[in-house]
Specification:
Length: 457
């Protein structure tokens, strides 16, 4: 019994080492490590995903990183499609993940007592079952997309019955998603049969896998979700823990002094009128096709609004001839911006975005309306939430950028009365988030429950 009491709790954390997924997982573990300093946390990813995260000085001593293989056979040359890497990683399966457990146990001298994992890494459930420890998956994307993957079989059945694999069919057969359309769904939800990749099969299995979890952690605030969706998730899962935005610390800190921003964005924004600037960014992964980049440039030039555009240097050559010279006085183009600070500046009037969840969270937290051009994954569902549920922005006309379509959206939000109402709703939603992040609200209580869960397992 004495050895049992002396045993230190050891939480293994499996990340999905692609895209923006590792960051919210690390932020969650940082919060847990601070709240439970007597616990060990072993952060298990690939060498490629761990290196940038653990090169920073803010990692506490009770968090250690361990690397497993990425699943790519030695000497194999991959094609350009990112899903190929994902499939190989998932194909490596629980055996690969177990190697991470072995490294963590050897490094800490303590057995693993709980597993936290990105929900995309479903093989981690098998590892947890083998070790007989609780399995706690985390859902980093927008929470409404979880319902789409949870009900994949039902969606496919309904689409097949209606001979409709896309388009304007409402998802009114899923609680809380009546405003969604089939066209908003991630491609993986609709792909089935021979064309279904392992990644798609993995996501489609969530409806069967997640009910086995001790708890499912949601990177979102319950107060922002459709009540029917929340009720349905709680009825289908053992425990649902809404812990707030994991990529943001709320309430947001005041903007830093302009002269500390090496990009020059804040100094430039200081010279602009209130709510006058169009901010454009498509994140670090998305690159619109050239004809859409040209359309964006033409619309910005024709609009007359000052604009700040986060655009990688190598893409500038795709813009219309003379665009940079003609707009250099009222436009600023930089390869990277401090986005949260930019969105928090009073001069920004609208955010033209791809609807990645981190961008949506940051826009909501700063009360900035959005013009949405979804590209893949949960972008379409996020855009629908922005336009039809929260009513704090619009999706681009026709689903792709055209000069006239973007001009129409810019004028709607920046000039017309309807845009004023969207801005008011965006500011109201910002206040909702600030309130939801309070110490007595659901997110704080759910995080406390999570700390208790990993500490007592």
């Amino acid at each position: 019994m004495a050895n049992s009491k002396a045993e230190k709790k050891h939480v293994a954390v499996f990340i999905f080492p692609f895209g923006s997924h590792p960051v919210p997982l690390l932020n969650l573990v940082l919060k847990l490590a601070h709240a439970a300093p007597n616990l060990y946390f072993s952060f298990i990813g690939t060498e490629h995903s761990n290196k940038p995260l653990f090169s920073k000085p803010h990692i506490p001593d009770n968090i250690k990183a361990y690397s497993v293989g990425d699943g790519v056979p030695e000497g194999q040359v991959l094609g350009g499609h990112p899903v190929e890497k994902v499939n190989l990683f998932l194909q490596a399966g629980p055996e690969n993940l177990q190697k991470g457990i072995d490294l963590a146990v050897a490094g800490t001298k303590h057995r693993v007592t709980c597993i936290i994992a990105d929900a995309f890494v479903t093989p981690s459930l098998i590892v947890a079952q083998k070790l007989n420890v609780p399995w706690i998956p985390v859902w980093p994307p927008l929470s409404c997309s979880l319902a789409a993957h949870f009900y994949t079989d039902l969606i496919r059945e309904q689409c097949a019955n209606n001979n409709n694999n896309g388009g304007d069919r409402a998802l009114d057969f899923i609680p809380g998603l009546s405003k969604m359309r089939v066209e908003d769904l991630p491609d993986d939800v609709l792909k089935c049969g021979e064309e279904e990749a392992l990644f798609s099969k993995t996501l489609a299995s969530l409806g069967r896998v997640l009910p086995q979890a001790e708890a499912v952690v949601i990177n979102f605030f319950e107060e922002l979700d459709p009540p029917l969706l929340v009720k349905d998730m709680r009825s289908n899962l053992k425990s649902v823990l809404y812990v707030g935005f994991l990529t943001l610390s709320l309430p947001l800190m005041p903007l830093p002094p302009c002269d500390t921003d090496e990009t020059g964005c804040l100094s430039w924004l200081e010279k602009q009128n209130e709510r006058s600037v169009v901010y454009v960014s498509f994140g670090t992964v998305v690159t619109p096709p050239q004809h859409e980049l040209v359309a964006v440039a033409e619309a910005l030039e024709a609009s007359g609004f000052p604009f700040l555009w986060s655009l990688k240097d190598h893409l500038k050559g795709l813009l219309p001839n003379g665009f940079l010279e003609r707009t250099m006085i009222r436009g600023k183009i930089v390869p990277w911006v401090p986005q949260t600070h930019v969105l928090g500046h009073d001069s920004v009037g609208v955010f033209v975005t791809h609807c990645g969840c981190n961008s949506v969270f940051e826009s909501i937290s700063n009360g900035v309306p959005m013009i949405c051009r979804p590209f893949f994954g949960d972008h379409g569902m996020a855009g629908r939430m922005v336009e039809d549920f929260w009513e704090i922005g619009v999706r681009i006309e026709g689903g792709v950028f055209t000069k006239n379509g973007l001009l129409k959206s810019l004028n709607l939000i920046m000039v017309m009365e309807e845009g004023k109402k969207m801005r008011e709703k965006a500011l109201k939603l910002k206040r909702t988030v600030e309130d939801a992040a309070g110490p007595q609200r659901r997110a704080a209580q759910d995080f406390k429950t999570l700390v208790e869960l990993v500490s007592s397992s």
